[in-house]
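Record type: monomer structure entry
Structure origin: computed from sequence
Chain ID: A
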Amino acid sequence: MCRLLAYLGSPIQPDKLIYEPEHSLCIQSYRPRETVTTSVNADGVGIGWYHSQKQTEPFIYKNILPIWSDINLPHLSRYIETECFLAYIRSATPGQAASLSNCQPFSDRHFLFTHNGFIDNFRATLYQPIRSHIKDTVYHKIEGTTDSEHIFALFLNELAAVDGNWEQALQATLNTLFKLAKPYGVKVLANIIISDGNQLIASRCAIGSTPPSLYWLQNAPHFPNSVIIASEPLFPGNWNPCPESSMICVTEDLKINMHPIDL
């Protein structure tokens, strides 16, 4: 499974979380503690971030190399200063190609999206039902072949239907996803993080399996005025495990709201 990381708060250089902590995202690529289906996350890396002073669409850097082999990201992550970023390291689902179009984060307009999990036997089960469910305007935005990007397409589809309400859109996305999966009896694991640069919203849920690990931490001593969401704790601290079937919403002023997901 992939490992996720999200940050919202005072301006930061992403390398402070991607590389420096004792259990950094980089270390999780080859020595994860809480993965179930894999021992390494070596099929790619990606980071998406927002300009700290201008209202622009997010910037994205992706590579299909393992993060430990990427010679550019350490420099880039020290150069960037941002109030919000999403990062991930990939463990590709069997049968899904290691290509840039399949690397996360995915983006649309001001949104960034990352997903940790999988749809069991995706190509033979939910690939066509998801594509049949979404509108053409969303369908044509899909560039890769992953279950993750198709879940993002579902989110964009539902977002339009609820007039831009994130929480409702993510809830509707998960409801639709699990409804489509039910006739096939397949496992669906859906840890998701979404941002627009001002807020974060994340889910931890699954059907047919225990969802992957997910934690959040607010105002860590070395990262005051911030919220961090991560698949695994990066360093010792008062990390809070997200309950199963839950959603965490982080507002622009860093208030945290937890909600159960009605599956």
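Annotation 1: DSSP finds seven helices and 15 strands in the chain.
Annotation 2: The chain has a mean pLDDT of 95.
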